[in-house]
Each structure stands twice: as C-alpha cells, then as structure tokens.
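Please, why this fold?
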Amino acid sequence: MPCLHGILPRQYFVHLTLLCQATFLLVQKTVSRADIRTAEALLTRFLQHVPALYGEAAETSNMHLLMHLPKCVMQLGPLWATSMFPFESANGVLLHLVTAAKGVPLQVAERWVMKQTLARLGYVTHLPASFDQLFRTFMKIRDVPEDGVLGVPQAGSMTAAVHGLLECHFGQVPTLERHLRARVQGFEVHSCEYTRPKKTCTQFVKMRDGTYCEIQTIYRNTSSSAILFVCKSLIIEDFGTGSAKYLSQVYCASQ
C-alpha cells in the first residue's frame, strides 16, 4: 500500500486498504476470533463501497465470495492452509478422466490411481523397445527436449563491436546463425531482441561464476552446432542504502 500512496485517489486508496487489511488478518500464522470479526467488518465495508466507486457492474459473484472467507477461516484455519492454487493446474487432467455422467467421483478416483500405478510400474519394469514407445504415448510422457536454438535463423548484420569480441574469443569468426531463442539445460531463454514474450522474461541469466548477464544476441555455430550467447554483464553495486543498483557494463561471450 505505501507504493500506491499519492498515486490512487484517496477514496480508492482507503477502499483498497480495507481489502488488504482484511486479507492480512486472515493469512496470519495464527488467526484469533477477534481477527476474524475484524476482517468480516472490513470486508463488509469494502463491498458496500464497490457500487459507488466502480459501478453496479463490479458487484460480481467473486466479490460476494469474499464474504465467505471469514467463515472458511473459522472452520478450516488460515487461508494459506487451504490454498487451492497449487492444484488448479491438475483440474484439466482430472476432467479428461471423466467419460460418463454417472459416478464421476469414482471415475476420477479409480483412473487417477490406475494412472499413478502404471507410471510407477513403467519405471521399475524393463519394457521392450517397441512396447516402451507405446507405453510412453499412452501415458503421455514427453521426452526431454535436447538443448539447441529454437525457431528459424534471423536476418541481421553483426556490429563491429560484436565482430571484434568474437574475433578476440575465437581467433577467427566462425560461420554463425542468429536466433532469438534457445534451450539450455532444459530451460528456454531468449535474447533482448525477442519482442514476443508476454508473461515471462528469460533474457537474464546467471553465469557459472555467479555473475548476472543480459542476453543480447544468440548465435549458433553452423559447423559445431554450439550455442553462443553475446551478453551484457550486469554489475551489482551496493550504495549502503539497502538497495542495489544494476549497471550495464562490458560485453562478454559465453558458450
């Protein structure tokens, strides 16, 4: 909330504070009955002001569900103890286990146990090569992709600075392909030239020596298929104020 002070209009700032304070009370390590009553009062005030600030259309079912949080904490404990977020990703898997309208819980339970049992047997039983591939397809087991560049080579000229860096590193600049993304040790990374990432940013990497770098360009050596990163080193300086400043520094080549 301190970050929003002076940015949000006062009435909106105070309104959001009600929700934050109520949530804080319900996610403590221990929650008392007094905390629950206070949180319930705060949530009630929060919901009462929603129509005036955001319009009646904002009074959705999700807003109404907030009033059930104090009761859930009273019955089941702090909110963090019953968070379902880690399990949401499995909902799609469970949905595909249902093939009939009747006995849905039993279908899910039996097929989930069967799937887990088959997976364990697959690890401890030696299967013929032909059947092993069929088993992996049936269990939807994906092979771990190999390291390498991703996507098609990109057009673009090499700057004199990068050319000099590669010449210094290799003695003679090899024939290279320019790429935007690569997979290294199972992780996908991209250069700062990649403009399509929406939810993740993987252009910053930690090197073996513990330093941090930003990937400027990704190259593939056409003769050896080796992946080459042209990076910009990030120097971390502590100015004694409790915060760190990141300064872009020299280029470095990493293979």
